[in-house]
Write a structure and sequence with these properties.
The structure holds three protein chains of three kinds.
Chain A (H helix, E strand, L loop, with lengths): L1 H22 L8 E8 L2 H16 L3 E8 L1 H13 L7 E5 L3 H6 L7 H5 L3 H7 L6 H6 L1 E2 L2 E2 L1 E7 L1 E6 H6 L10 H11 L7 E4 L9 H11 L16 H17 L9 H9 L3 E7 L2 H6 L10 E5 L13 E7 L6 H11 L2 H11 L10 H5 L1 H6 L3 H10 L23 H17 L4 H19 L4
Helix pairs in contact in A: 10-11, 11-19, 19-20
Chain B lengths: L5 H28 L4 H4 L13 H7 L4 H32 L5 H10 L5 H14 L6 H25 L3 H9 L4 H12 L1 H17 L2 H6 L7 H6 L9 H27 L1 H4 L5
Helix pairs in contact in B: 1-13, 3-13, 4-7, 4-10, 7-10, 8-9, 10-13
Chain C lengths: L24 H6 L7 H30 L1 E2 L10 E2 L3 H9 L1 H32 L6 H13 L2 H12 L6 H8 L7 H4 L1 H26 L3 H9 L4 H29 L3 H6 L11 H10 L4 H31 L2
Antiparallel strand pairs in C: 1-2
Helix pairs in contact in C: 2-14, 3-4, 3-14, 4-9, 4-11, 5-9, 6-9, 9-11, 10-11, 11-14, 13-14
The chains are: A alpha/beta, B mainly alpha, C mainly alpha.
């Protein structure tokens, strides 16, 4: 009896597995299946759930999503394109990647596809409506390689009620010294209200995004014109010392574990007086469904210090066609669907104006419906328009990028440097010592990469 | 059986309950969080009374397509475990009952195949699988996970076989029964507790493996590991949704664990077989 | 002796000498008909060996091949150049981080091994008795191992270790003590805590299987000889367990050296390089710096180091066990 039951179980298992192997992927397929790689940010999630709109408009196309956290996605997509595996048709890349991907021919120029659009389609898409600074960052050699899905800059969020109670006023264009003063005054850790929230989580796209804008606005830079690293220069050191000091005296505890997500939670739960970070958080903080402080949130520009250049960043997540895709024409249709004015209206209808992907089109910012629910819209639009990756530092530099250095080596170097700085923030190392280690590491990498001799 | 004063036994039992509860508390908390909204998820002390919501589960099952990933995890997990046992149990038998002077080296070599960190070999594997058209296939994943678990199966089953009383082995051999019959009818049932533990561990390791899953699949063979990773985002709140997704993902393994641990009990009866 | 297990010396003969993992000599001598069984023995063994050889050695050889080349994924125009041992020279001679990474790996692995085996043994002993609800408790105790490592890490990071929202600091503050930023100031401790919580059930399962396979006959005869519960434990159970502890530690070493997901999620190897171990360092090199050649070299070095460690471990364990 025992044996028979076991044999039956084993047979069942084998059959399940065999069926699984045989069925594999073959469902009755529409004529084209597109595979898209994307990050799991809220705007992308909305896109994923609205894809049936695209599929309804294009019945022969089906879209499959690969959704991953940012780091995993980069790893996966880069390995895919670099080894020629060609598993994706559409890839989500940031402004950082676009230049080298275009150079490596991992992305294809979109110009031929734009030329192929009918006049009705072009008019509906309205390419000129896309924010110029954003498109500039996605254009290489005069040709657009990707289309922006959403774009952001950085700004200052503050609690109007806490400021009023402390008798303070936040100017529209604050300086970092002012902000530091406000933070220390309101900082009340025993009540779990922290003066200011700043990212300390290691990562070139986490901690360094904010820190680099501070370095810029303090007059510092990563490299001089002969690619010599400047991490131990006075301006850079001042910026990092200021940052670590501010975090330790008036910032959130657990700073080195705090990235955008953690800080968004803290701010929306009412645990902080100020937060300098991405403009995409504005909608979330202003929405009473998700934020406890929705009625008390104020918006100001990102703080400056010695120079306004580079004080707020420019970033966009954009969609591009992978070079090895065999369905480029169909993929282009998806690209234009997801970045079109119609898509924005679709999101507005189904989720409300607060949820539309920000920072991509002038028309969004000219729509009364949007302006009504987005009190922050003016600051955001202006911040994006004035963030110039080609002119972000006091002194000349051989690179582009506001909150990053536009060279492929930066991802690794930046992450390593941010780790050393995290140790300084945590107090397990001093700022000069951490910067010294960072400087050495960067020098070594730059030598190996051939920038330095 | 042992004779203990009952208060001591009761105290020990109570202590065991407490330890189990302490160990499991974070998981229980996480499962509860799956029923909260994102805003409620971060309350401290954790809300013990709230209006539970199914929206996270709905999202996980709906938009996020839990079912698709679940199916893949089942097929790949079961498939690789079965294959690893089919290959590994006979090998373990051979190493246990027919040892040679090479046995020790063979065992060591088998173990050494696991010493290369997956991270280091993933790009070569990716290139290989890409050329062989095994990327994003369930077969490819089964092959990889079998490779991952085979050493475990061989090592553990060999030890369990080594525990079988030799008289029993000799008895089957003297009887003139064929090797296979003797194995299946006598030796294997004795090693069932070991087999239960081994298959449970293999299944868990395959179910939870995430690096290979994320790297070697796209959409067709993506397992629950990829599903859960997709909830972690750098720009939105995810804790309640991730908790719901994780709760869904561990439920089957917990059930498997419950089923297998009863097999472990049967080990007690093994000692009752008189040699 | 009537109840002699294969591979086990009579418990009273040498104070309970546990079997070593190597082929037990006693049985070899006793087998008269060795050659008759060799063919089926090989036939049973070969499929597994061939499978492993093909599936692991081919990728390994490819990794080795890459390790002798320069290949930057992000710079395909630079191509793949043969550079001999340059990658190895770079990491062994010129890289100040590499030595710390090895040290971290050793510290993390050894602490984890010790903690998980000891705690696992404790749990196994607790479960080795009859008591009501035993099945439920057993399932509960296995459950930390059932969670995906990345999820465990996120759970610990957000729910337990977070200085603002976490349980530990909440309790500490309630007791009037300051709540440290665990992941920042005690990163190694935090990582070890997370992985210990996850892997103790694994050790428990292995050791429990061992405990439960101790022959009742042996226990009874030991009792008949006058041994109390402690004596039974020391002279029957513990020696028998010796084999299982060996397996647990050997398997554990292989798995624990490769701890990656928890570090990836909880600390990203930091602060600084405080929690960067070898696998995480490979990840950084391969997927942040994109230098596949160097990453492959680090992987190969890891294999070499782990092999030596495992061999040394083998020898030390056998010796330690022989002196018990």
């Amino acid at each position: 009896m025992q044996g028979r039951r076991q044999a039956l179980a084993l047979t069942a298992v084998v059959m399940i597995v065999a069926a699984g192997l045989v069925t594999g992927t073959g469902q009755a397929a529409p004529s084209v299946t597109l595979t898209i790689a994307t990050v799991n940010n809220p705007d992308m999630v909305v896109m994923q759930s609205l894809t049936k709109d695209f599929e309804a408009k294009n019945p022969t196309i089906k879209v499959n999503y690969v959704v991953l956290p940012e780091n995993d996605l980069r790893q996966k997509v880069t390995t895919d394109v670099a080894t020629g595996a060609g598993g994706f048709d559409i890839v989500t890349v940031g402004t950082y990647e676009v230049p080298f991907w275009a150079k490596n021919k991992w992305l294809v120029s979109l110009e031929p596809f734009f030329s192929g659009m009918s006049s009705a389609e072009s008019a509906a898409y309205d390419r000129g409506d896309l924010l110029k600074p954003v498109m500039k960052a996605l254009t290489v050699g005069g040709q657009a390689y990707t289309l922006p899905f959403y774009a952001e800059s950085s700004m200052t969020y503050y609690r109007k009620d806490l400021f009023a109670r402390a008798g303070l006023t936040m100017p529209l264009h604050p300086t970092w010294d002012q902000v530091a003063g406000f933070a220390k005054k309101i900082h009340n850790p025993s009540q779990k209200v922290y003066g200011i929230l700043l990212r300390g989580l290691p990562g070139w796209g986490e901690q360094l995004a904010v820190l680099d804008t501070i370095v810029n606005t303090f007059g510092g830079r990563w490299f001089d014109m002969s690619w010599q690293p400047q991490l131990t220069s006075p301006a850079f050191t001042n910026a990092v010392t200021f940052y670590a000091g501010l975090l330790r005296s008036a910032g959130e505890p657990g700073a080195t574990s705090s990235g955008f997500t953690e800080l968004e939670t803290l701010m929306s739960q009412g645990n902080a007086a100020m937060w300098v970070d991405a403009t995409v958080a504005a909608g979330y903080l202003a929405d009473p469904k998700t934020s406890k402080i929705a009625g008390n949130i104020g918006f100001a520009y990102a703080p400056t210090e010695v120079t306004p250049k580079g004080s707020h960043w420019l970033w966009a997540w954009s969609l591009g066609l992978e070079g090895s895709s065999r369905h480029k024409a169909e993929a282009f249709k998806f690209l234009t669907w997801a970045t079109s004015p119609d898509y924005i209206k679709l999101v507005a209808r189904s989720r409300g104006w607060v949820a539309v992907p920000p920072g991509t089109r002038y028309s969004t910012y000219n729509t009364p419906g949007y302006k009504r629910v987005a009190a922050f819209a003016a600051v955001v639009e202006d911040s994006i328009n004035t963030a110039d990756p080609t002119n972000a530092t006091l002194e000349n530099v051989p690179y582009t990028g506001v909150q990053y250095v536009g060279i492929p080596e930066f991802a690794g170097m930046g992450t390593t440097v941010s780790q050393f700085i995290a140790a300084a923030i945590a107090g397990t190392d001093t700022v000069p010592s951490a910067l010294q280690k960072a400087q050495q590491s960067v020098e070594q990498t730059m030598k190996q990469a051939g920038y330095l001799k | 059986m042992t004779v203990k004063p009952s208060w001591r036994s009761a105290a020990l039992t109570l202590f065991t309950y407490l330890v189990a509860l302490a160990l499991v508390a974070p998981i229980a908390w996480m499962v509860m969080t799956g029923f909260k909204t994102e805003a409620q998820a971060f309350q401290l002390p954790p809300l013990l009374a709230w209006r539970p919501t199914l929206e996270n589960f709905g999202y996980a099952l709906g938009v996020a397509q839990f079912g698709r990933f679940f199916l893949n995890s089942v097929i790949i997990g079961l498939g690789s475990t079965v294959l690893a046992c089919l290959l590994g149990v006979p090998a373990a038998y051979s190493l246990a009952f027919y040892p040679t002077r090479h046995t020790r080296d063979v065992l060591f070599w088998i173990l050494s195949t696991k010493m290369l960190p997956v991270v280091a070999v993933i790009v070569p594997l990716y290139v290989l699988f890409s050329r062989l058209h095994l990327l994003d296939t369930r077969l490819g994943m089964i092959l990889l996970y079998t490779m991952m678990n085979l050493p475990l199966v061989v090592w553990m089953m060999r030890s369990f076989f080594a525990e079988v009383p030799r008289e029993i082995i000799e008895a089957t051999q003297v009887d003139g029964a064929s090797l296979a019959a003797g194995f299946v009818r006598v030796t294997l049932p004795l090693a069932v507790p070991g087999l239960a533990a081994t298959t449970l561990l293999s299944l868990i390791l395959a179910w939870n493996e995430f690096f290979i899953a994320v790297s070697m699949t796209y959409t067709n063979a993506a397992t629950l590991a990829v599903f859960i990773s997709s909830f972690k985002t750098s720009e939105g709140l995810f804790w309640a949704k991730m908790s719901a997704a994780s709760a869904l993902a561990i439920a089957p393994v917990v059930l498997a664990g419950w089923a297998a641990q009863r097999q472990l009990v049967r080990g007690l009866t093994m000692g009752a077989i008189k040699g | 002796m009537a109840n002699q297990r294969i591979g086990e010396m009579p418990p009273r003969a040498r104070g309970g000498l546990p079997p070593s993992v190597a082929a037990p000599p006693a049985r070899k001598a006793a087998r008269a008909s060795g050659s008759r069984h060799r063919t089926p023995a090989l036939v049973l063994l070969l499929p597994a060996l061939i499978y492993l050889a093909v599936m692991t050695q081919v990728p390994f050889l490819l990794t080795l091949y890459y390790s002798f080349h320069f290949w930057n994924l992000m710079q395909p125009t630079l191509g793949m150049r043969f550079v001999g041992l340059a990658n190895y020279a770079q990491i062994v001679l010129h890289d100040p981080i590499f030595r710390s990474v090895i040290l971290n790996t050793v510290v993390i692995t050894l602490s984890l091994l010790m903690l998980t085996v000891v705690l696992g043994l404790g749990l196994a002993l607790l479960l080795h008795r009859e008591f009501p609800g035993r099945g439920v408790v057993r399932t509960l105790l296995i459950s930390p191992f059932l969670i995906m490592p990345t999820v465990s890490a996120v759970m610990w990071k957000n729910m337990l270790l977070n200085p603002v929202y976490g349980l530990f600091d909440y309790v500490l503050r309630g007791a009037g003590l300051p709540g440290p930023d665990w992941l920042a100031t005690h990163p190694l401790l935090s990582v070890v805590a997370i992985v210990t919580w996850e892997w103790t059930p694994f050790m428990m399962l292995v050791l429990l299987a061992g405990l439960q396979s101790v022959s009742l006959e042996l226990i009874d005869s030991a009792r008949v000889d006058g041994a109390g519960p402690l004596g039974v434990f020391r002279f029957v159970t513990l020696p028998h367990l010796g084999l299982y502890v060996q397996i647990a530690m050997l398997l554990g070493t292989i798995y624990l050296v490769q701890v990656f997901g928890e570090i990836f999620v909880a600390t990203s190897g930091g602060p600084g390089i405080a929690t960067t171990n070898l696998p995480y360092y490979v990840y950084l090199t391969a997927f942040q710096y994109w230098t596949i050649g160097v990453a492959s070299a680090i992987g190969v070095v890891t294999v070499i180091l782990t092999t030596f460690a495992a061999m040394g471990f083998f020898r030390i364990l056998n010796q330690a066990v022989a002196t018990v």
